[in-house]
Amino acid sequence: MVGHIRITPTVGATFVPIGPVEIPLTRLRNGRKIPHIVRILEVGAIQTSLIVDGADTSRRAIGVAACHVSVEEDDMNTTERVSTYDSQSPAYHRAFEVFLAHTDQKAKTRDWLRGLVHGLPSRQVFVDAGAGNGKVTAWFLTDFQRTIAIEPNPSLCDELRRTCPTAEVHPQKILEAQLSVLADLVLCSHVLYYIDAADWMTHLETLVSWLAPEGVLVVVVQNHDTDCMRMLGHFFGHRFHLSELASRFEALRGRHYRVEIATVPAQVATADFDSAFTVAEFMLNLLPMPHPPPRGILEEYVRKHFASSAGDFRFSCNQDFLTIRPRL
Ligand SMILES: C[S@@+](CC[C@H](N)C(=O)[O-])C[C@H]1O[C@@H](n2cnc3c(N)ncnc32)[C@H](O)[C@@H]1O
């Protein structure tokens, strides 16, 4: 084994089941085709080990991959990779700050939510589930008599307490939280990425169970058709679809709840490349990355897709707002 090859699936690629397959390496620099093992680790993440000399013939590649691929030579040991971090780490907190400093997404959230909050028949209790640093929570603190902020990341919790001194902070995950009151507004903004899709419905049911009879749940997730989600699709073959969750919930509980979804435009804009890269990396970290792509490949992607003719960087991060209200 002399090295590794990173295979980036092209848009619209279809994938073979997990197992060893042969992919013709037509785009290798020297034009040679070399037998190799391809392991399909998950949809969109394919990694292959190059075998010369037939050192391990039993593992020789067989079959043909039913996907279009581009191939880049890449040494796993020396290539610098995209940083990985989870939503409970200080690294996540730092990257989140760079994102917040370069997007109008939160200002758009504020405008949209303000209309909804002022139309509520009662404003006694506000629950912000996954409140982060409290930036969004703080905007509505004085609109409600009582605010409960649920946030499991300890470093974000510290900032949340400073930003929202009158909020009751629960340093927990959503499924761990025990609330003794019902809420007029439950907000869950940009949290579902960090929760396994198989558990989305359980989370939705929990959030809905906290609603007062005339309350409203608002769940916010980035729309599936943004520049950021296209990037996730490019690297991992995955995007988030809040509208699918909304349809499933409506099919199950539509007799008892009114379900609506609205999409609001937003973008990231940075004058410098480093900030654009940090935000792109932050977006890739919306998903677990067991096999992070080389840093150079992401740099190339950011320059190619996000650079404007004026020399700055712009990419969309439009948001879907799902609202769920008990039918009276
Ligand atoms: C992108 S931030 C969003 C913060 C804020 N809601 C906003 O819209 O700006 C995602 C937050 O979700 C939190 N989080 C991740 N998993 C969670 C869970 N299971 N329950 C509650 N919060 C969670 C993270 O700690 C992080 O603060």
Polypeptide structure, described:
With 328 residues, this protein is α/β, with parallel strands linked by helices. The protein is 30% helix and 25% strand. The chain contains nine helices and 13 strands. The strands form three sheets. The chain has a seven-stranded mixed sheet with strand order 7-6-5-8-9-13-10, sandwiched between helices. Helix 1 crosses helix 8. The termini are far apart. Bound molecules: S-adenosylmethionine. S-adenosylmethionine binds next to helix 3.
Give the topology:
Layout: E1 3-9, E2 36-42, E3 45-50, E4 69-74, H1 90-101, H2 105-118, E5 125-129, H3 135-140, E6 146-150, H4 154-163, E7 168-170, E8 183-189, H5 200-209, E9 211-222, H6 227-236, H7 242-253, E10 257-264, E11 267-270, H8 273-284, H9 295-306, E12 313-316, E13 319-326
Parallel strand pairs: 5-6, 5-8, 6-7, 8-9
Antiparallel strand pairs: 1-3, 1-4, 2-3, 9-13, 10-13, 11-12
Helix pairs in contact: 1-8, 8-9
The chain binds S-adenosylmethionine.
